[in-house]
Amino acid sequence: PANQPTNPINQSTTPLVVNNSNFNNNLLAYTPTNNKEVMMDEYSGEDSTATTTTTTTTSTTTTTSGYSADDLPELLRHYYLRMFPIQPYYQWLSYGEEGKGKTFYNREFSFTLANDVYVRYQSFDSSDELKKQLVDNCPHKIDIGAVYTSKPRDHKKVKASEFHPVSKEVVFDIDMTDYNDIRTCCSSEDKRAICGLCWKFMTSALKVLDRALREDFGFEHLLWVYSGRRGIHCWVCDERARTLSQEARKAIAEYLQLVSGSDQKACKVSVSPSYPSADRAHDILLPYFNTIIEEQGIFGNDERRKAFLAALVDGKDPKIQTIVNDWEESSKQKSFEELEKKLQSHKMSGRFKQLVLQYTYPRLDIEVTKGMNHLLKSPFAVHPATGRVCIPIDPDTADEFDPLGVVTVADLIDDYNNHEESRLKPHVEYFQRFVDGLATHSQIEQNEEMDASMDW
User: Fold this and answer.
1) Is 173 a catalytic residue?
2) What is the pTM of this model?
3) Of 169, 173, 210, 238, which one is the catalytic site residue?
4) Comparison of pLDDT for 248 and 189, the residue scoring more
5) What angle do CA 249, 380, 120 make, to 5 degrees?
6) Is 295:197 a contact under the CB 8 Å cutoff?
7) How far is it, in rounded angstroms, from Cα 86 to Cα 137?
8) What's the rounded Cα separation, in Å, for the pair 274 and 350?
9) Which range in 78-92, 181-195, 331-345 is most confidently predicted, on average pLDDT?
10) Residue 175: enclosing H or E segment and its boundaries?
11) Catalytic annotation, pick one of 108, 169, 178, 414
12) Using the 8-state DSSP alphabet, how is residue 389 labeled?
């Protein structure tokens, strides 16, 4: 839009202009259903898009920040109109081809609209067109897919054999529900809930994968993003990663998958402790492991302790069973430190490493990583159940990240109406630095290729 400011986090009261005659561009309104007192202007006008509705069947969910899911349609309208960081977002997905290449306009987007209407194979020719569709349709969820041989919206106009993905970031999806067999702080009441105690599983997973992807595969441009509720995503954006075949993606996913198996399987670690990435992962995870064992109360009752010991013994070595039995009989407090000392004294540190990996190593949904057709939730989307924005996570400060304190879309509307600096600003600035780093790296590579071509 012509009047859109360069800064995506503009705090000016000057309204942004969207090419939609049904919007009263001079007005902004949001009346929370939980009766929170907020000073706002009036809104008038309805969306003319037939596929969009401003009603939702989502049950009311109110968070400590005042967000209610019943307010989502209006909140999203203003968020997409004024706050969504469209320019760095477009720059990211264009990968240096802004306005001149197929990387952006052959990219698939999917929208989940109100009442769970799911629309795939969306594509856009410009950032202006994408923004207009976001404002017009107010998707409750945005997913990003692959770059195809032609525009996804035209996929029915081409032969099926000629429409296929050609590039996509290597992505990883880690969800807290995959830890429900070992976390005790939230899963007993609501398996979808999270807290500061179990979030350590996510932090430790990020630390391990970030190191592995950089050191074992040489990737540099990793974008970590909060899922908005109970998980994290990683987008590996290096050009070398984006053009990998499905077989190569599968190989990476399987290399990194050290924990697998059903709940009925006692020991889920599928590699030897001498496996190269296992040693490094153990060193990263050990401090988290010691804290998690205590905070999750693994030794707090017989059932959890028996499950822990079953993973340690796993029916493989009677010597380990003897050590465990001796510990059970002789230890009054049955502390983990005592068991660890016994294992080390019998030179069983390898089995101890396996236990650390089982309880704290990242639990990956490798199908997400393997398939180029798989879509993943977009950065800066809003989770409809929590209202939280899917903000980037800086790996250097991941230990300080608080998922329950993440800014909500309701917070952003408050900031705008109270003429305060947006709480989204530092996250957009981090994202912009990430995108700029991609652009700089791409330019260096282009210069090197040019120099090589001129080398007689």
Assistant:
1) yes
2) 0.81
3) 173
4) 248
5) 60
6) yes
7) 16
8) 8
9) 78-92
10) strand 170-175
11) 108
12) B
